[in-house]
Design a protein that fits this description.
This protein has twelve helices and eleven strands. Helix 1 packs antiparallel against helix 6. The radius of gyration is 26 Å and the shape is globular. With 422 residues, it is an alpha+beta fold. The longest helix is centred in the last third of the chain and has 21 residues. The strands form three sheets. It has a five-stranded antiparallel β-sheet with strand order 2-9-3-6-7. The chain starts with a helix and ends in a 10-residue tail after the last helix. It is 34% helix and 10% strand.
């Protein structure tokens, strides 16, 4: 009997929830001007007026307890067993929660409390209740709200009060009680990360990495299947629906040759290609992949391109980028006036660095050309996204080719981008 997609996603969620971000040394949290400080819950650093520099402003991200991964892994192995001849070892620690405050010890608003999914999921896993893990999104909101309620105190003037030792201790005990995690696995709060900021108006720093990047997406995807509202691409990815048509390529079978012939018809070629160094064209299989990708539709939303390192997969992505840029330019050129590409302002607001900015929605005709590069290997994504804007990625004779040069210069300086020639 085939697995139901919701069951597959449940298993995937369990793997993600029980595979937290870990660290072996506190020094791993140093980044740029960030510093790692010892932390005494009953004498937090912001209460030491002599040591505090009144001229500077900063945030403290308190690591609110950690779980010893070796002990947690041993307990999970006892519960579920492990028949592999070479059992992997688990070491390091995983963060239970973080508490973020400013230089006076005042909680940093909605960003003041974050709780790890692993700390919440581990007791359920040890009780063999993995079916409860789909409740993480709701549980996280409740845990954050409850933790903030125990951290935030209001003075007679209506202002938030700085945290002190007793408040932190009570909040920590409440959190461990709510999570139900075995105290023998837990290391009490012992360090914090100090992050400087430009001025008093600067927003809190990005939270320390606690969980999987896409755990919430898995929860949402499972909900879509349970409600029978999963989109075609997701259904195809989990093999819940077979494509109406298939493109068998790479063999001498008649069906494969006919599919290749259809994809090499002139009308299948995108109107542009990437201006690579040497102006070298794509080889046949690369061009087939690009043409097939640009022909994707609801009936065939996914395309798999397999190949070992160095066989030109990134090159294929570059040509797809070029094709999307030209297609969007064609859509933009269809408007009689640039202002027609935007809808009227109807109070649309987005928050950026703590500020509320109004914006004009973009017309649907020029949406849908976005590309998202994802991978289980962060370095692979970094390589692709960092290579594309570099001057080394385009032909030597493309002297006037520039595209969003100011954005590239800002994100990837001081590396040479497609900058305007002097």
């Amino acid at each position: 009997m085939p697995n139901h997609p919701a069951d597959i996603l449940s298993a995937w969620m369990a793997l993600e929830a029980l595979s937290p971000q870990t660290f072996r040394r506190r020094s791993e949290f140093r980044l740029g001007k960030r510093r790692v400080l010892n932390f005494d819950m009953h004498n937090p650093p912001w209460t030491d007026c002599d040591a505090r520099d009144e001229e500077s402003v900063c945030f403290y991200q308190v690591v609110f307890g950690t779980i010893r991964m070796e002990k947690a892994f041993d307990r999970l192995t006892e519960t579920y067993g492990d028949q592999r001849p070479e059992r992997p070892m688990a070491d390091g620690e995983a963060i239970v929660a973080t508490v973020t405050v400013d230089e006076r010890g005042v909680p940093a608003g909605s960003a003041s409390a974050s709780v790890s999914c692993f700390a919440w999921a581990l007791p359920f896993a040890l009780d063999r209740r993995l079916d409860r893990l789909d409740g993480w999104t709701r549980a996280r909101q409740a845990l954050r709200k409850g933790l903030r309620a125990r951290l935030e105190r209001i003075d007679p003037e209506g202002e938030l009060m700085p945290l002190d030792g007793p408040v932190l201790a009570r909040a920590y005990e409440w959190l461990l009680e709510q999570l139900g995690v075995d105290r023998e696995m837990v290391v009490p709060p012992a360090f914090c990360v100090r992050s400087p900021r430009r001025d008093k108006a600067s927003p809190p720093p990005d939270p320390l990495l606690l969980d999987s990047f896409f755990l919430d997406d898995l929860v949402a995807a499972r909900g879509l299947f349970l409600e029978d509202e999963a989109p075609p691409a997701l259904r195809s990815y989990l093999q819940a629906a077979k494509p109406a048509t298939q493109l068998p390529l790479g063999s001498q079978e008649p069906a494969s040759l006919n599919a290749a012939r259809r994809l090499t018809l002139p009308r299948r070629f995108p109107p542009a290609r990437w201006p690579a160094r040497g102006r070298r064209p794509l080889v046949l299989n690369q061009q087939l992949a690009v043409n097939a990708a640009m022909c994707a539709d609801a009936a065939r939303p996914l395309l798999a391109v397999n190949g070992p390192p160095g066989t030109g997969k990134t090159t294929i992505l570059r040509d797809i980028v070029a094709a999307n840029v030209v297609r969007r330019a064609e859509a933009m050129a269809s408007f009689e006036h640039p202002s027609a590409a935007f809808s009227p302002y109807l109070g649309n607001v987005v928050k950026v660095d703590g500020r509320r900015l109004g914006y004009f929605p973009v017309a649907p005709e020029i949406r849908g050309f976005e590309m998202l590069v994802v991978s289980s290997n962060n370095k692979a994504v970094e390589n692709v996204t960092a290579e594309l804007p570099g001057m080394e990625a385009i032909a030597e004779d493309a002297l006037t080719l520039r595209y969003f040069k100011t954005v590239s210069d800002h994100l990837l300086a001081p590396r040479r981008q497609w900058r305007i020639m002097e």
